[in-house]
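Dear support,

Our group has been running a series of protein-ligand predictions, and this particular one with adenosine-5'-diphosphate is the one our PI (initials K.S.) wants archived with full inputs and outputs. We had some confusion internally about which version of the output was final, so please treat the block below as the authoritative record. The input we submitted was:
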Amino acid sequence: MTMFRKFLPFASADLAIDLGTANTVVYLRGHGVVLAEPSVVALETIDGIRRVRAVGDDAKMMLGRTPDNVETIRPLRMGVIADLEVAEAMIKHFIVKARKIANVRLRGTPEIVLCVPSGSTMVERRALRDAASNAGARKVWLIEEPMAAAIGADLPVTCPTGSMVVDIGGGTTEVGVVSIGGLATSLSVRTGGDRMDEAIAAYVRRKYGLVIGEATAERVKMQVGAAQPCACPGTDAAHLMHVRGRDLARGVPREIELTRNEVAEALAEPVSQIVSAVRAALENTAPEIAADIIDDGIIMTGGGSLLARIDHVLAEETGLAVRVADLPLSCVALGAGRALEEDLYRQVLVPA
Ligand code: ADP
Ligand code: MG
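Confirmed final output from the archive:
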């Protein structure tokens, strides 16, 4: 009996990982989402040898503030693995951390489900698989991101009805139509949260001659950003933000005030690129499925769907009902985790 007890805390180590360009979210079988951290790694070079100094939250805090021998990189910036070695180190780090957080002794080596962008090539998928295998996976499965997002948002993916998912991530926006356990249409554009941040920084530089960092631009987007100018007149304090940067001409620190409508103006271009991608996907959708989308509308996920009024803009431009998923930042990981756990969805997993 005591022997038996000793083994009770063991649990399956299976994981689903949404390795996003901005954030990595990890789902542990039986526990749900246990970890969500920025996909950022800080590397330190000492005597010509590169080693990992920090990963995730700790590394993001260093972004733009590192000494010369430390560089922070986002190994997945453009949606695929740019630096395999670093991505591997990052996956390993998150696997270890997810196990620690769950606080259970895990049995054996894990099966891992990895979410892949629908537009990724065979080479890119192989790189992901290798990174997970080297990080200790016994078996690696892949799931297309729009499919995972749809499952995470409770859409009827196994039914003969079409549902459209728009996932605005850091590096890309993925538009997918799922039906009967497969992807009927998918389209990916390299416009997402990063482009929005760049657009804000470029606007501030052009209009105010002020240089701001990417972390500052991201904060502006989150706090006062909007996909559309606000109709309400005046400069409501809630829609104002003080922004600090370096004066372009004089090289000294300076502060300005930005209104929500200015930020909306700055974001016009990336927002219109996202709208065009959704339009293009709708045009490529078979008529029967397009008819289903009229009934069910569009569901949005990904951090970019939290941009104020982006759902309104999409609804206006497509004439369809648009809804943001309950947990847009963890929806994909949640869906991938359910595919791992629930027999109903098992068919959507592809062996890597
Ligand atoms: P990925 O899947 O590519 O890792 P995420 O779905 O995690 O991306 O979304 C990250 C992006 O969402 C970032 O560009 C981030 O700035 C943006 N984001 C997060 N919260 C908000 C918000 N409240 N408003 C606007 N953008 C946001
Ligand atoms: Mg994502």
